[in-house]
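pasting Tripartite-type tricarboxylate transporter, receptor component TctC for the record, 331 residues
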Amino acid sequence: MQRRTLTQILALAPASAVWAASGLAGSATAAEPLFPGKAPLRIVVGYPPGGATDRVARIVADKLQARVGSPVVVENKPGAGGRLSAQYVKNAPASQPALLLANPAVMLVAPLVFLDSGYDPDKDFRPVSEVNRYEFGVAVASAVPVRQLSHLLAWLRANPQQANVGVPATGSLPHFFSLMLGEAAKVRTETVGYKGSAPLLTDLVGGQVPLAIDTFDVLLPQHEAGKIRVLAVSGERRSTMAPDIPTLKESGLNLSGMGWNTLFAPQSMAPDIAERLSRMVQEIMKEPDTRQKFEASRLTPVSSSSAQTAEMLKAYRAQWTPVVQRSGFKP
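structre below
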C-alpha cells in the first residue's frame, strides 16, 4: 500500500477514528484531577439507598466522575431525618472532599425546630447547585365524592369530622404545606402524620384517611392506576407528567410551593473548587439524557449557578419560615 502522511490519514478518516488515532480522545474527555492525589469525591445523602434522593445522587455522581478526574461515590448516612448527613459533611476535612445533597427538611425545617441541629446552613455550607424540584399533590381516596378541589373544600366544610389530612411524616414539607392549604382555604384540618409514604398510601387507597398531601412523584402512579385521585398540584404551572391535573392556583387557591434537592459544599472546601463543581453540575443537568433520567423518576431537573441557588434559598426561607414558626411544631 502507498504510504500516507499523518495529515492525509486524518483528512480521510471518520471523525471518531481521527480522535482515537491521534490520541486526542483521551485528552478531550479525561479531566484534570480536581482534587490532589485523585481523592474521591463523596456525595452524601441523609437517607437509605433506593429512595428518590439517593437516585438523584447516583445520576449526578455517574456524570460527575468523568469531569472531576477522580472517583465520585454516593455515601448514605441515614438518621435523624437527614441531620446526621449534614453534620457529617460539615466536619469533612479538605483532604476528604464531600458534597451534601439535601432537601428543605434538612436545610430549612431542622434548624428552625431543633434547639441545636448540629449545623448552621449559612455558616457551615455554601450552595453549589440546585439539582431538581418536585411538586406536592393533593389527593383523595376514591370513595370521597369529589373530583375538583373546590368540591373537596365544600365537602370538608360540610363534613368537618372528615377533615383529616394524611402526610408522610410530621415535620415534613407535606405537613407544613397541609397547614398552608388549610390557611389559604380557610378550612380547619387535622394533620395525621405517618411513618413514610408507603403506609400513607396504603391507608389512602384503603379509605382509612380521606385526604393526603405528599410529593407528586409518589402519588402519581396510584392516580394513574385509578386507586386515588390527585385533584391539584402545588407548582406554579401544571406538571408535564400529568398536564390534565390543574394547579392549586388554577383551582382557586392563591397557593404554590415546591420542594428541592440541592448540592452544598462544606466551608472546608475551597471556594474556587466549589464554584468549578457548580459549573460542572450545571452542564450535567442540561444534558438531554440526564433530564430524561430525572423525568423518568417523575422529578423536574434544574440547572442553577451557586448565586442563583443562594437566591432561591433566600426566597424559599421567606415563604416557609413563617409557616413553620406559626405551626408551633416541636419534634
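Residues 306-327 form the longest helix (22 residues).
Residues 118 and 143 are 45 Å apart (CA to CA).
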